[in-house]
Amino acid sequence: MSVCCSFRRHSAACFRGGLLAGSSLLMVVLGLPGVPRALAATATGAAAFADVRRFEIPPQPLARALAAYGAQTGIQIAFDSATVSGAKSGAVSGQMTDEQALSRILAGTGVRYRKTGSRSVSLVRGASTSITLGPVRVGGVVAHQNPTGPGVGYFAGNTMAGTKTDTALIDIPNSIYVVTKQQMVDQQAQSVAQALRYSAGVYAEPQGTNLTGSAYSGFDGIKQRGFNSSQYVDGILSDSFAAGETAFLDRIEVVNGPASVMYGQTTPGGMVGMSLKKPTETPLHEATVGFGNWGRYEATFDYSDRVTRSGNLRYRVAAIGVTQGTQMDYVNYQRVGVLPSMAWDIDSKTSLTVLGSYMYTPQTGAAGTAYPLVGTLIPGPEGRVPRSRFFGDPGWNTNSARDAMFEYQFRHVFSKYVEFSQSFRWEKSRNNLEYLYFSGRVSPSEFRRTAWYSQGKNRTVGLDSRLTGHVDTGPLSHTWIVGSDFRQIGTDTDIMFGEGDVIDIYRPAYDLHTCLRTPWSCGKASYPSSNTYFQEGVYFQDQIRWKNLSVLLGGRQDWVSREYIGGTRNYYADGSAATKRGKPSDQNQAAFTWRAGLVYKFDFGLAPYFSYATSFVPQTSSDWMGRPFAPLVGKQLEAGLKYQIPKTDVLLTASAFHINENHYLIGDPDHTNYNADAGMVTSKGVELSASANVTKDLHVVASYTYTDMRYARSNLTATVVDAATGDEGRTVSEQGRYVQGTPRNMMSLFFDYTLPFERVKGFGFNWGIRYVGFTYADAANSFKVSPYVLFDMGAHYDFGSIFRRLKGLRAQVAVSNLTDRYYVTSCGTNDCYMGQGRRVYGNLAYSW
């Protein structure tokens, strides 16, 4: 019999089987003699839903917990008895609002609540793909958020990235920063690198403007605490050449410091985690059209709705199409992509989410040829070259990518003590590159170029399976996790390089007919290779809580195997080719990594913390002689303070860190496109960060980063170069010198303010400032790349705030590098990367 049990109704209409039968069944389900008073609570006796009180409700059957909650608060709850049947509640202990307490009671049960009045709610079934419910607001303050969702404003209170459990950021003993969806929208970030411009500890664009949006193997140059970053999509390592389309993301998470215990292959600098859009519990319908300089035209579509009336089966489709030029002639950006997904709440304890995506990027917006050192950082004989100058060849200028992906996320709750989660990801990515790079300087205005050709294919399969649970041992509360993950990555590449020419940077001549177009005509050969990489790891973690003290302990064992096969492909006059394969080279590695940390959270919101963690990155590359590199191993000490102002969406973080990494890789100065082992490097510094919804109308993010990164122990030497002439001087040891390309100081501030005044209702504006300090251009610290300050600004207007017929229509404009500052982001001994000039982008968004 289906029974409707309501805290608001007292008539026979509330029950299908009659008032007496319904009331009797309700008493049996709840089993508490005090329930009738709770059910009969009236508006006169009920407290406000945002009232703060102390709760002590232990884990128990959900129906009993709701009865205890209703008796204490007087909140009226309507639900069907089948909705709570068999469900167990979480523990609720401490001072909190009535709504926060209800969120915690329902967390992990697969039951959601909806407000039906100022002091009444209704309950519905439906599991979530994550452990918690979506964002719940109490008086403008977030009570609890989906740890993989878009956040609220510029504030995200919870994350899965640091621990693979739903944990508040303030309870994690290391630095984690979240770029919310609203921040991406306000800044109109068109790549992951652009979205990370205001994140502490991150040097987002050392290689200048690159719109691919990928952090793959440092492909986009994203650095954390001085180390190359790696990208994880929904918790699984991604080797996609173009992953990270911001139109497909709900949030971006920056985990600074070693994350190997949970994820395996990460540098000690950290990782960047991305959460793809998934079906929403409430319908979402949005379309946008956008326009910008350099001929940008963009259209996006985002549609999510229910398949079934109950909402247990939902879908979402996001899509994008964009075309534009760039600040450099002959370099363009074009992309089309689609991301469909489906979420199925199989029952109150089981859920499955399935996603797929395809992106075609015929032109990635990345120029293979950089800018010359002389003529940019250092004025040449005829001054500086313009940003629009192209130094490659239009006929040998290809940079394209195709990416396909399938993913599922499964979750089942066995009991209040144990639940099972599994994530699977398959992706295939390929790219094609043809460009010319600077390979030497002939005179102050002439550079030698070399032609390059490569094709690459990546195939990745990743699976992460884990058991998670909660258990109490005396006064200690444990949130534990035990898991195993594996990934298999297959990479096929075919590269060829050869003849080029000399280019005058002030009067470039194009239409180069490189012999790589017809390699048989000049006796060129290509070098195909196959690299198969397999990693498996088992890990454990225990988050132990005793009163206000939290202790985090975790460990992981990894096993890695790699098979590499090189070869040579010779081309003949008739256009045929023959490939000669070399002998397979096997490499096996294993490592144990661990971490420990503690956090003490004071009642007034301050939380000091301390942690120690290690990292392990198996190397799949080789030096110029084909010798594989030793794995990168690192360790970090970090201490800091986190402060969340009570009853606000304001989180302040201060941290100090010290990292050592052995076998740090740098570009081989003597062999282009190869790396060299630089020995041990040390990175130490300080990070300050703020993310805040100061009011419902004012959102702020701010950061400051100080990083001192040096070669602590190295056998390598470097040659001092006179930047103005290119002449080489004395040879010096790298030991003790600063690592090139790492700024010591970075600062940023960005705010968005929607004016609350009636005359300008719906109008808002934003403003930002970014400062990046100087960097050294080479390991010898021969010369510096100058610091720079950039300004960003924008405005937006909600037409529906005044014109009712235009409800859902929003206009926006965003300008980055407002003053059109000419700046260089990083340099080598021959070339430099140029920063992006003034970018103006506007769009119209319509939601219905």
TrEMBL record:
InterPro entries attached to this UniProt entry: Beta-barrel_TonB (IPR000531), Beta-barrel_TonB_sf (IPR036942), Plug_dom (IPR012910), Plug_dom_sf (IPR037066), Secretin/TonB_short_N (IPR011662), TonB-dep_rcpt-like (IPR039426), TonB_sidphr_rcpt (IPR010105)
Bilayer topology annotation: Multi-pass membrane protein
Gene3D superfamilies the record matches: 3.55.50.30, TonB-dependent receptor, beta-barrel domain (2.40.170.20), TonB-dependent receptor, plug domain (2.170.130.10)
One Gene Ontology cellular component: cell outer membrane
Keywords associated with the record: Cell outer membrane, Ion transport, Iron, Iron transport, Membrane, Receptor, Signal, TonB box, Transmembrane, Transmembrane beta strand, Transport
Pfam family, any one: Plug
One BP term from GO: siderophore transport
Ranges for domain Secretin/TonB short N-terminal: 75-126
Keyword Signal assigned: yes
SMART domains: STN
Transmembrane segments: none
Principal cellular location given in the protein's record: membrane
Entry GO MF terms: siderophore uptake transmembrane transporter activity; signaling receptor activity
Location in or out of the cell: Cell outer membrane
Family: Belongs to the TonB-dependent receptor family.
PANTHER family the record matches: FERRICHROME IRON RECEPTOR-RELATED, FERRICHROME OUTER MEMBRANE TRANSPORTER_PHAGE RECEPTOR
The name this protein goes by in its record: TonB-dependent siderophore receptor
